[in-house]
Fold this protein.
Amino acid sequence: MGNKLLLDQGSGGLASHRLVNEVFFRHLGNPILGRMDDAALLPRPKGPLAVSTDSFTVDPIFFPGGDIGSLAVHGTVNDVAMLGAKPLYLTCGFILEEGFDLDDLDRIVASMGQAARKARVKVVAGDTKVVPRGTADKIFINTTGIGEVVASPSPSGHRARPGDVVIISGSMGDHGLTVLSCRQGLAFDAPVESDCASLNHLILKLVTGLPAVHVLRDPTRGGLATSVNEIAQQSGVGVTLEEDAIPVKPVVRAGCDILGLDPLYLANEGKIICILPEKHAAKALTIMRRDPLGRDACIIGRVGAENPGKVVMRTGLGGRRLLGMLEGEQLPRIC
Ligand code: MG
């Protein structure tokens, strides 16, 4: 195999078979994928299914803390898990640009395999297309995730109720600032790294230990501010957030100041918003803080009946302002 991708490696013929064996099966292989039929045959789980799909176009494709491959696994695993589901299977579709570096492809697929093993999900179906140079940018990946819902009832953006508290599992803005600073070639005094990680094991502990979880959501594109607005609208409730309680790393805050960005609108790829009745908050925090991915979990706000569909931010000085959704595209190709 040469070291640049050729058009015939996506043709379905001999060259693509070789690529599939040497790269995709080597890193993602398992008995279900290995059957090589037109579709994967999956055993039926006991509970309802949760399904989610996402396409990943992040630029740059490698960044501190991850790459487009690990992100394509974590992002979809997390979306499935947010329903209180145990992610079981993934499918992957690759759109590759002719001339793409094969060593980079190998590194990305290896990283997907590693992320999938850690999340304990199996890649059961996949597809590869190679498009002529200039008609795509290096590599785009679509993943679809299938999971078994174990929470009953399933957490949902429609279930926030007055009297609930809003918990966040850690600091905001790490992924967004990392990708943006990489793209612009900016270096900060302290290292900044994407938080991208699969949260399914933490979520399973949370929903099995606490059936009272009302909402789980990952504040990805549009950040915390947009996600909490979505929940307020879906549930028809008002949410008040405490500005001083929201964790933002000093390096992320400093970077945002330089770039004129608000960390509450930046994407996160390894964080959870958890909303549940106040009386269960202490237990949720204990469960989250025991896991390295939830070590910095804290309460950042509460749900009320006033201002339905709106999010109010209380500032450190006691002021109040409306926190809106992200307007326009702040950062293209962030995930
Ligand atoms: Mg999501």
Q: What stands out?
A: Residues 7-149 form a domain with the 60s Ribosomal Protein L30; Chain: A; fold (CATH 3.30.1330.10). DSSP finds eight helices and 13 strands in the chain. The radius of gyration is 21 Å. Helices lie at 14-28, 68-81, 102-119, 174-183, 200-209, 223-235, 250-259, 281-290.
